[in-house]
User: Fold this.
Amino acid sequence: MNNFVYHNPTELIFGKGQLSQLHDKAKQLGSTVLMVYGGGSIKRSGLYDNVMSLLQEAGCRVLELAGVEPNPRLSTVKKGIEISRQEGVDWILAVGGGSVIDAAKAVAVGVPYEGDVWDFYSRKATPAAALPLGTVLTLAATGSEMNRGSVVTNWETQEKHGGTTTFPTFSILDPENTFSVPRDQTIYGISDIMSHVFEQYFSHTPEIPLQTRFAESILKTVIENAERVLANPEDYDARANILYSGTMALNGTLPVGVETDWATHSIEHAVSAVYDIPHGGGLAIIFPKWMRYVYRENVSRFVRFAVEVWNVDPAGKTDDEVALEGIAATEAFFARIGAPTRLADYQINDEHLQVMAEKATPFGPIGNFKKLTSEDVAQILRMSL
Ligand code: NZQ
Ligand code: ZN
Assistant:
């Protein structure tokens, strides 16, 4: 196991009715708040009204940054920074999915920074200060509610990059707020959560049994609950188990002491930067192809994956056969729940394939399980067409 320091300051407030805690949090964080939200789902579900009354009861003046796009854009973030500076905002409240939270994080670190907030995404700078940020999560997927990552798209340059920004001070997760997530977004969320585990599970670091079993238990929990939640979107326990899995998959628990990969996320971000497709949809397509491309780097890890996660019976089979059966089981699962399986499902052909391969590797080769050059990425994309 490698050395590590683990620190996560986000207060996770989980369960039915927990939104009521927003009142006290608001009183602690200051009287002027910027509420950040997306394209209207929170208005349709009634969450907007509930949040607004709690903030007003707490005596807050509420400003709004509405219309944050899925794959949030730098231009929207800059609007939020401008409003916050003009109005002397004390803290930010994100109400929505990962895109809304990521945009809110960018605003939180952008306000006290004198340079261009894009510097945090193009690796020119790291934030030294941030406004406090609270979140009310409505979609199980990114883990953004309990980490300091943020992914923003610069649409002018067609670049989508993750930056290290700021941890939320608190995050409120009520599974009932995810009941209204549409079927396709539920599927993308499941794919994203599983992909986060894959990025941290496929590793060469030896002797990491606890991290390995944590990862496998998240995968099994998501797999067990996926079809349940798709059959009944208002199944509280299934929604709760997927929601908590999403948080645990990317709150810093899994990578401690482990060399992680993250190449597939870079590849997906490059595809989204050019075609603006849903993140989880892109991952469901690309991850199994990445697996096929790299599994020989450490076949025994893929054998373990097949046996422990997909219950593949290894008797009488070669390691290669078992590993490939595990990858096929992953593909079959994504197909079974209705995830896209090929880039063609999004009308993507090989036209910009080379451009995407370059965009996925702007700082040099990516990944650790196998270092991938732009040429490797082009091959994986070709397998994904
Ligand atoms: O915009 P609204 O109207 O709110 O609708 C959203 C949006 O259209 C809708 N939605 C969310 N909650 C809902 C709901 N609809 C009905 N009922 C609800 N309760 O779902 C759509 C997608 O929302 P979005 O926030 O884009 O989804 P997600 O949470 O999957 O976030 C994706 C973004 O996060 C980034 C991705 O790249 C992408 O930009 N990521 C962020 C990470 C992080 N910060 O740690 C890590 C991830 O790997 C990922 O890259
Ligand atoms: Zn992801």
Remarks:
- The chain is about 50% helix and 10% strand.
- The beta strands are 11-14, 32-37, 61-65, 91-96, 133-137, 149-154, 159-164, 170-173.
- The mean pLDDT is 97.
- The pocket of zinc ion (ligand 2) is lined by residues 142, 192, 195-196, 265, 279 (CB under 6 Å).
